[in-house]
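[job 4417] fold queue: 2 targets
>>> target A
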Amino acid sequence: MGLAAIFPHCDFHLLAAMPRKLVTAVMAAAVGLLPIVQAQAQSRSLPIVRDAEIEALVTDYAAPILKVAGLNSRGIRIVLVNNNSFNAFVDGRRIFINTGTLLQAETPNEVIGVIAHESGHLAGAHQQRLREQLRRAQTMAVIGMLLGMGATAAGAASGNSSVAGAGGGIALGGTEMAMRNLLSYQRTEEITADRSAITYLSQTGQSAKGMLSTFSRFANALSLTGTRVDPYRISHPMPRERIANLQTLAHESPYFDKKDPEALQLRHDMMRAKIAAYTAGPGGVARIFRNNQRGLAARYGDAISTFLHGSAKAALPKIDALIKEQPKNPYFQEMRGEILLKANDSAGAAKAFQRAAALDTRKSGLIRMSYGRALMLTGEKSNMSSAIRELKTGVVRDPEFSAGYGYLAQAYGQMGDIGEAELATADMHYYSGNIQEARIFATRAQQKLKRGSPEWVRAQDIINSKKPRS
């Protein structure tokens, strides 16, 4: 499994261009409310999580919200970020949600409320408007600094130290004013997105109770820290203020007391169990489901924990028991395949992934790639053509999953097709963002591919590419 943003809806290039004092102040203000991994944001790294089961569930959460927000035709993607904090943010046509959000949210409604809020930002074009505000803040800060420098120079030339000191105050005052105006603008947009979220939830027949629960969690966490926060130096309204602003609207909805369907709650619990098993260690699942340790979700998490931290031999009967209860669940079969791979039973894993792919109504490229990889790992030449077919199907469905091209390169290599192997390696580097290595392998591939063929043209596209894709 695999960006928490200090400034959730901003353009980092614009931040880089702002005066250092203003950037520091804006970033510190945002950190005051949410726990953030600052190093990740500064390096713009994105520790992305890919999982067919979780992606299918979160997509189901988002679909009705995006429709009523008028965003369903814009190709909005939900991206999962490996970060333990409760946070989400938007960028272009993507909504990023931390795994910590999914793990901490006890009901689907809480996550749906987060998605509704972020959809409000997208529908309101808040990201573009924030870029304009950032440019304006930069201009204000620069003007303030120039005025301050002019006053300081005049004071120095006249020998008047008080004038020179006032120049420094003008510079700092300009930066402070720019920061406060920017944060005030962002707080207004957050309130607008909250209200939009309430509207979307009502239009889709869902409760806003999850949103209030989320803000209550923020408020409790803030009070437990004992931190005193200046409400004018943060990018979001204070949690209690958000609750007060929304409580009346939320209670006016006829759906306020509506609960999530039991089947959806079970899927949510199984998602939490999986995330806990992967991110919270062996005891993570037990802590979450301590009141229902024999429930399906708890046993699913236990099976995964045993696979990750114990032995495949011990995990296999646990997943088989779950399959007996839900024989048509593709993700139980998928996990069975992973367990068998760990047990070095590639042939058995291939059969499990094949069943998972057959049961998967969402047609996940990830499951097809797992099937192809397992076929490849059998080492049987008779399986290589099928492995390549499955891997190619997977990357067509999920073209930006770089690891799939790596598996494809291995399969082509075992077949002795070096040109195709090097082209797949070039694609792997290209979608990993390593454009230099991608060009090297694309050039090598062209030397072995038929000139003018689709594969040769693809290699040329990589060679000519200007920017890495991610």
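>>> target B
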Amino acid sequence: MRVSQKLEYACRAMAQLAKQADAKTITRLDEIAQREAVSSNFLVQILNDLRRSGLVTSKRGKFGGYLLSGKVDDITLFDIVQSVEPTLLEDTTNTEGASGAAVNKAWSSASTIFAASLRTIKLTDLTETDSGPMFYI
């Protein structure tokens, strides 16, 4: 599956904010950019989309930054997709032609299943770092 860089960075930024959510710590833009190795100029645009959709809150000033607006457990991957790539889940096929209706129905069904799957993935799932057991020699 091909995910846009914008959506990937949004997920990574949200994961960073989720790691700070328990302490209600404001995280500076440059900290997120450095931790995730992303451009701060691009990241500010993404965080603005997330802010406009109500997923994050921002504070201005010397001690400003970003924090999650809601609980980590309440935010899903679907919410992030809707914030930064809403066209990903839109129905773009048409029903013209002899096979148009059947093709449209198939893609619409796949889109519904995909959206339901995105709703099951919580933001907390993006913060897990368990890569399996580590063996030392």
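[job 4417] complete. Note on B: Strands lie at 56-59, 65-68.
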